[in-house]
Structures are given as structure tokens and as C-alpha cells.
Amino acid sequence: MTWTLPPGCGFQEAYELRLDRDAGTVLRTGRVQGPDHVLVAWPGEPLISRERVTVRVRVWSAGAEEPSAWSEPSVVEAGLLEPAHWQAVPVGADWDEDPQAERRPARVRKDFRLDRPVAHARLYVSAHGLYEVEINGRRVGDEALAPGWTVYPHRLRYRTHDVTGHLAQGANTIGAWLGDGWYRGVYGFDGGTRNIYGTDQSLIAQLEVVYDDGTTLVLATDGTWTAGPGPILTSGLYAGETYDARLHDPDWSTPSHADSADWTPVRTHTRDPATLVAPSGPPVRCTEEVPPATVTRLDDGRHLLDFGQNLVGRLRLTVDGPEGAKITIRHAEVLQGGELATRPLREASATDTLILSGQGPLTWEPRFTLHGFRYAEITGWPGKMTPDSVTARVYHTDMRRTGWFECSNPLINRLHENVVWSMRGNFVDIPTDCPQRDERLGWTGDLQVFAPTASYLYDCVGMLDSWLTDVALEQLPDGTIPWYVPVIPGEPMWTPIQPGAAWGDVATLTPWTLYQRFGDPGLLRRHYPMAKAWVDLVERLAGPSRLWDTGFQLGDWLDPAAPPDDPAAGRTDRYLVATAYFAHSAHHLALTAAELGEARDAEHYRVLAQETADAFRRRYVTASGHMTSDSPTAYALALAFGLLTQQQRQAAGDRLAQLVLDDDARIATGFVGTPLICDALTESGHLDVAYRLLTQTECPSWLYPVTMGATTIWERWDSMRPDGTLNPGGMTSFNHYALGAVADWLHRVVGGITATAPGYREVALRPRPGGGITWARTRHDTPYGTVSLAWETTDSGLTVHAEVPEGCRATAELPGCPPVLLGPGHHVLDSTELAARAA
Ligand code: BGC
């Protein structure tokens, strides 16, 4: 276990860490190593289940005679760390169900008595399927779609809740709503797969009560619980939910519930408690409520709502009406001809239905589904819909926002905002490709290209570390990384699983990216075996030629030149892409190995990377520096991955710039080339051309969707065509973050903040103005504190305001000026002055 020392513990300071454990106070003293951000390893004995430790820190500043006061205590409480400490078994309904058909979700519950006052109580909880727990009629926690999606046979996350305040002396009731979720619901494209992990739907819960006299009570799910049908009639992540309010007994999870014959003893199931793990990231929660921007009543009585923002979540309705009245909500990202355009949803019906009880006003929101939408159509609304009767609730993994960017061009600001919204819509427990159609899968390539952007915008390290753990679990014995994780076993289109460049490279590149951004070497270490197995596989596939030129590849997926029905048929040789990625991954694996002190591996992969780059040049680059595939993606790869000789670089950069200009700076790259092209142009001396690409508004371009009113990043440049019609291809999502990976370039090059040592303990402040932009500001909350940079153009140069946190140092490099070293604090720099001083 590690802790980060509080901000302010910077260079050359000593600290004392005081850990109060039951076993006694442990004091640790140390010295902060230079500019290293200190992570203090757990001293001595490992934590034991349920243990509470109080941590305080005090700091001895350089030269000070007295230490600082002890910091505010933080309390760390361990979960259930030993499998033997789990008594709970999965419990669910015991009625007959057809496992191949839609099944009505169950609720489970248990009445119990507490005969003494309670000191404190914890609930450890998970499920096969999804759950929401109530105790005595009150919801426990506020997370949605718990326990999220992991490779359940190996890892099922449980959460710990402090439920002391939910309990009462005397009679109590605990109950849980259950949903199918990923465990047994229908998931995956082409009709999907049912029962991916099992046919049961069950709760795993352990309530541990400590009375004020120190005695304890453990109440775990077992055969004494009962199950009954609830008011949810059907529920699916893609399909939506149907709820019959007439069937809801508001007392169902309180001791005053009526006894009914519907409630029968549960059936118990099995779960190896060794697979129950604590989460490493925050849960999915509602993070924002968005009121409708407009509500239109159509002639036939339907209501069409526009929320003004393409988002991911669900509607909450407050409605009153006659018993049995049926309200149906359909969702879509765009309209066509004034109606919801649902074709892009493919087989996801994304429809929620509420049947009213006639018992007065009701506030309702579906529980176990999410939709990607900007528009909703509501049929059957009784009476008049008032503006506050419907709210869109936005859901995603509740990560801390850490990155911001803004500049003088409002279209670029909207583009950036769209990237943020696409990240929010697709960081829903796992990083998904899209949130609306019958897919929503953890596509590895999408995340691989987007991770640098994501890790600037949000603290997503816990969530991605968890997902990478699953990527490693799904890695095949030969090293193959699946296209998406978790894998849906038996999905015909992607079976057998084959290795693919750019997608599989998530194994090497993403741990490295996260290490650079968050500075945790433990993460690098954890995913090292996966990274190695991936590169070793590609090394075998390529053989002595070092060219990976066999097998299935997606290439530069969704190159705009590819036909709508064959997005892999781009203009760049797919084996060129594969070999470039092989060299790039081998290079990053060598860096990883060196960082981890694996010297022999570091040398092996360094040589491998070099040999692969040599082979790449021999096969795909002419002596003069032109690529055999004369496409922007080919040049972008060769330049951005550093695969060319110095001499070839210039020629390749010039040719890339020419290709871009020949196309009038419209995008001619897909998933692989798009994230790299601006860097390739910038670093080969064509910053102006990179800005031409960025500021182009004709299709295909980053700003074209913005001019079409986009509020998220689209999967295709022309998901909607200039005439307002939808792209006819099967991949027409309006919420796909991959092409938004350009935001990383906005942060680093336009804004000017780049991490040059892990965790931003060293930063380059290197803004590169252009494109008619007169000011820009960006800010990132690093593990050390906030780094910010704001620049504006002056008559003769630039003025820069920069902020560098404690424990971190920066090098400012303004255009035309020599580098300046900056320590912690606020700095104002003027490029005209700096240049004059240097002259
Ligand atoms: C997904 C992509 C993914 C691709 C690869 C699509 O269906 O939406 O984003 O990377 O398939 O084939």
C-alpha cells in the first residue's frame, strides 16, 4: 500500500509518517528524494481485513528547527481481504425461468433484529448481475450499474458501505433490486449473447454489525433470504427498462412490509470468494442533471425533447396520471426529418416504459440501463408536461476532473468540450467505444489512442488500471490481446481472436502513458508481464524479417477513403501500420523494462525496436524518404514513432505537409493516423499545416461536426453528411472518443504543457501558437498540484503566465527564446524580453 505525501512536501524535505494501528503506532521518518514525489510503502505487517489505520504526516522543511504540525488524519479501512472472511453466497430467485428468454428481475430481502445499540456497521456487497441495496427503505450508496463489468470468473468487485446510519435497534430489513446487466443480459452486436457469465441473477452481501459493547453480528446472504418479483418487468442495458408502478410496495424493504406468497426462499449459487476484489477506481454515478432545452408537443400527442447535449444517462420523470397509463420513452442521438434517427442504434431498442399506478405523483428513473442520447420521444404522457417534469441524468465513472483547455477560437473550444463529453459518455466503468448502439465494448485500440487525452482530462488511473487488469486476464496464452475487453465468449464475428496492431498495443503503450501521467511505477510493474507477452508474440509473428506482414489487421480503421461498408480498407498498407506499431511497442517496452530495472529485457527490446525500425525503413520507405503507401497515415506513423533517419524525416515531413495541403487540409486519416498527424507535422517543421488541419471546417475535419452542431465526437468524420442525412454505414455513432485524441495535441502544443518526467515531476512549458489563435490557457492537476499555462499574443511575441506546483520543476521554451528553468510558484514571461536578453 502506498500514500502520497500531501502537497507542499517538495525538494529536500524530511517527513514523518505516523500510522496508528490497533497493534500500536508506527512512526516512519524519511527524506524526500530530490524532486521525486514520495510514495510511502506500507511499513511492516500487511493490513488485515477490516483494520482501520489513521495516517498523519508532518514535514521538516529544509533548515527548519521544528516540524510542521501533524496533518489532518486520513483514515484507511481495509475491506475483506481474506477469502475466508466471506460468509455470503450468491442468492437469487428460485422460480422457473427460461434462460433463453427475457426474464423478470427479482428482488431479494431479509428481515433481522438488532437487540443492542449499534456502534458501527459495514455492508460488503456485490452481485451476479446488477444490484441496488436498501436498508429499512433507504438506499445504500449512490452508485449505478454496480458492480460494473470485469472478467467476472476471475474478478468480481465488491463495495464497502458504512451503513451505521441505516440501522435501528429492533426490527430491520435489508433488500436488493437485481438486474441482468452484463452478467446474464443480452450483450454484444449481431443479436448479442445471453447469459455470458451465468444464468442466475443474485446478490452477494455481508452486513457486519459491531454493537456498542464490542460484540458483533454478521448477516450474510444465504438460504434464509427470500426472493420476490418486483415492479421491474424487463430490464436490459441495450433494451431499456419496463416498470409497472402498480406492482410496487413502498414498504418492501422495511420491517413493515406485508407478507406475501410471492416471496419465496431463495436459491443459493456459488462464487469463489477469492475472486471478490475491492475496486481500484470510483463507481459510476449520476454526475449532472440536464433539463430539456426544448420540449415540442407533436400533433399526435407525442413529446419530443431536446437536451441540447448528446449525453449518456437516463431520464427521470415526475408524473401523475391514471392507473395503467403507459408512458414510453425512446432515445436517439440525432433527428432526421424531425423524428428520432434510431438506425445508428442498430439492435439496441433503448426504450423505457413506465406504467402508472394512479396513486398520485410519482418520480421514476430506470435503474439498470443507460442510453446515449440528445433527444427523447415520450409517448403517452398524461396531461401537460411542465419543464421540470423531465430531467436527463448524466452517468459515468465518477472521476475527478483534472484537465482544462480554452483558446480564442470558439469552434476549437466546442471541439474540446465535445471530447470531454465523449470521454464522460464512454468512461462508464470500462472505456467503451460508444454508448448508444448494441456494442458499448472495451475496444482496446480506441482506448490506446485516447489514453493520453483521457489521462489529462480526468483522474482515470484507477479505472484504467482495473480495466488493464482485465485485459491481462483476457490475454491469450500466446500473448494475443483481444480486440475488446471483457471478451464476449463465442461472438462469431471476432472468433477466433487474432492479434491486431494498434488495438493489441494497448498492452505496452497504455501502462506507459499512465505511468508518465500519474507516476505510479507499481502500475507499470503490474502490467509488465502482459506487455512483454504481447511484444514477444509479435516478435514471433514477424520472425527474422521483423516485418509483421501476415494475418488479419484493421489497419487505419475508418480512413475516410474507405468504403462505408468496409472501414478497414483504408489507403495505408495495413502491414505498414502493423510493423510501425511493432517497433513503437518494442521501444516502449524497452523503456518500461529500464524503468523497472530489468536491464536484460531493456537491452533485448531496445535492439528489437531498432531492428524493426530498420526493417520498416527498408520495406516501406524509399531512400529519399517517401513512403510506399503515399498516405498521410503512413507518414504520420513513420514520423511520430521516430522510425526514419534524420535525412528521411525532412523529406517525409515535407511530403506529409504537401499531401495535407493537396487535400486542402481536409482529414485523410483514420483511427491510427488521426491521433498522430498533428505531432508529425509539428515535429517536422510544419506547425502551420497542423493548424490548417485543426482549423479546417469542411468535411472531413475536426471542426466540420462542430459546424453541424455536434456536441460529442463522432465515430466518422461524416456520421452526418453536410445535407443532414446520416452516413449509411453500420458504424455511425455520434459519440466515439477515438478521433478526439487530437485534444492531447491541444493540451501539449497549443496549450503548451507536456510531462517530461513521470507524474509531471518535470514539465515542459512549450506553447506553439498558430492558426490565428490569439490566446490559449490550459491547466492540469498533476499528482503534485496544479500546473497551468496561459499565453496571449502581443505585438512582438507572447506573454505567458505559468504556475508550477511544489515538488515539480519546469522548463519554459517560448518560440524564439532560449529555455528557462522555473521552480515552484507563479511566473510571468515575456518572449520579447527573453529573446532580447539572450541576444
Ligand atoms: C468499434 C470501434 C472499434 C472497431 C474495430 C467498431 O465497431 O465501434 O471503435 O475499434 O469496431 O473493429
Task: Give a verbal description of the structure.
Among the domains are: 76 residues, Immunoglobulin-like (Sandwich); 195 residues, Jelly Rolls, CATH 2.60.120; 112 residues, Sandwich (Jelly Rolls), CATH 2.60.120; 84 residues, Sandwich (Maltose phosphorylase, domain 3), CATH 2.60.420. Helices cover 23% and strands 28% of the residues. It is built from 15 helices and 43 strands. The strands form ten sheets. Strands 18, 19, 23, 24, 25, 26, 29, 30, 31 and 32 form a ten-stranded mixed β-sheet that branches. Strands 7, 9, 13, 15, 16 and 21 form a six-stranded antiparallel β-sheet that branches. Strands 11-10-14-8-17-20 form a six-stranded antiparallel β-sheet. A hairpin with a 2-residue loop joins β2 and β3. The radius of gyration is 28 Å and the shape is globular. About 2% of the residues have low confidence. The structure holds beta-D-glucopyranose (BGC).
What attributes characterize this protein structure?
10-stranded mixed β-sheet; single chain; Immunoglobulin-like; globular; 839 residues; 6-stranded antiparallel β-sheet; binds beta-D-glucopyranose; 43 strands; Jelly Rolls; 15 helices; alpha+beta
Q: Which secondary structure elements does this structure contain, and how are they paired or packed?
A:
Blueprint: E1 2-4, E2 14-21, E3 24-31, E4 39-41, E5 52-60, E6 74-77, E7 91-92, E8 106-114, E9 118-128, E10 130-135, E11 138-139, E12 156-157, E13 159-162, E14 170-179, H1 181-184, E15 202-211, E16 216-220, E17 226-229, E18 232-236, E19 240-244, E20 264-265, E21 267-268, E22 276-277, E23 284-290, E24 294-297, E25 303-319, E26 326-332, E27 335-336, E28 339-340, E29 351-355, E30 362-364, E31 371-379, E32 390-397, E33 403-407, H2 410-426, E34 427-428, E35 430-431, H3 444-457, H4 461-474, H5 506-518, H6 521-542, H7 574-595, H8 599-620, H9 632-640, H10 646-662, H11 674-683, H12 687-695, H13 703-707, H14 743-751, E36 753-757, E37 762-765, E38 775-782, E39 785-793, E40 798-804, E41 809-812, E42 820-822, E43 825-830, H15 831-838
Parallel strand pairs: 12-22, 19-29, 37-41
Antiparallel strand pairs: 1-4, 2-3, 2-5, 5-6, 7-15, 7-21, 8-14, 8-17, 9-13, 9-15, 10-11, 10-14, 15-16, 17-20, 18-19, 23-32, 24-25, 25-30, 25-31, 25-32, 26-29, 26-31, 27-28, 33-38, 34-35, 36-37, 38-39, 39-40, 40-43, 41-42
Bound molecules: beta-D-glucopyranose (BGC).
The site of beta-D-glucopyranose (BGC) has 11 residues, from α3.
